[in-house]
Design brief:
alpha/beta; Rossmann fold; binds iron/sulfur cluster
């Protein structure tokens, strides 16, 4: 059985007190508790402080381009659909640069798990405003306050067809670990949006800000009711409250299960796909 140490790469370089530490711990603990080892996971990262996890997590991994982690994860899953695939990204990377990919991965119900470090800023580039920031948020890139209203990630995911939508808080690592485990086990597109204070460049959405406003869903909350789920998903925007837990879950055939080509073997196991000379011959 693997340990957290087995999944540990280089020591993280995140700022002291950053919410990323809790997410890093939760991801590794979830993988251990699910019985994974560094060879049974494919991980892909976007660009940003979240993307630097590429160096801190020991697993098969790709550090992709800004906003392109999700299509890379989709490609990895289609190449070897027997592997669990994680995309670990930031809110700017996923809902900004990669917003189009996010929508279409939800529609396709691609069987990947997307974990979003949601801190409302571009931390790696010193705090420009990102898509989940509230209207009026002042930053280096918006000195008079951002004009647009924020993206609503939970609602967007549900409306576009994601079959597992959850929200966690990096201030509660054990709860977050359970959500990540559920997301990885879920068959279909899973989103875990994680409220992650950037202690260096976001002085509004702090740990105490979320502690005052975030709450865990009740045990009898019905996460299969899409109408109830949409109401919960809109609470951050409409009620300044942040529900934590599985907001919505449903069943729908995944993209890879819809492809007859993948019924018996993965693409990687097919001789044709290992014969690069033949592929070149076919296409040139
Ligand atoms: Fe965390 Fe912000 Fe520092 Fe990045 S800049 S490591 S998000 S505190």
């Amino acid at each position: 059985m693997s340990t957290v140490q087995d999944f540990s790469g280089y020591p993280p370089t995140w700022c002291p007190g950053c919410g990323n530490w809790g997410i890093g711990a939760a991801v590794k603990t979830a993988l251990v508790q699910l019985g994974h080892n560094p060879s049974s996971i494919l991980a892909v990262f976007g660009i940003g402080c979240s993307g630097n996890t590429n160096d801190f997590l020991n697993a098969y991994a790709i550090h992709s381009l800004h906003g392109r982690a999700i299509p890379t994860a989709v490609g990895m899953k289609l190449a070897n659909h027997k592997m669990s695939v994680l995309a670990i990204v930031g809110d700017g990377d996923c809902y900004g640069e990669g917003g189009n990919h996010f929508i279409h991965a939800c529609r396709g119900n691609h069987n990947i798990t997307v974990i979003v470090h949601d801190n409302c800023v571009y931390g790696l580039t010193t705090g420009q405003v990102a898509p989940t920031a509230q209207k009026g948020f002042k930053s280096k890139s918006t000195p008079s306050g951002i004009i647009e209203i924020p993206v609503t990630p939970l609602g967007l995911a549900i409306v576009e067809g994601a079959t597992f939508v959850a929200q966690g808080f990096t201030g509660n690592v054990s709860h977050l670990t359970e959500l990540i485990k559920k997301g990885i086990v879920h068959k279909g597109f899973s989103l875990i949006n994680v409220l992650q204070p950037c202690v260096s460049f976001n002085k509004i959405n702090t740990f105490s800000y979320y502690k005052e406003r975030a709450y865990q869903l009740a045990d009898d909350y019905n996460f299969q009711d899409i109408h109830v789920a949409l109401e919960k998903a809109l609470e951050p925007t409409l009620a300044d409250k942040f529900p934590l837990g599985v907001i919505y879950q449903s069943e729908r055939t995944t993209f890879d299960d819809s492809l007859p080509q993948l019924k018996e073997k993965t693409l990687l196991e097919k001789e044709r796909f290992l014969n690069y000379d033949k592929i070149l011959e076919d296409f040139v």
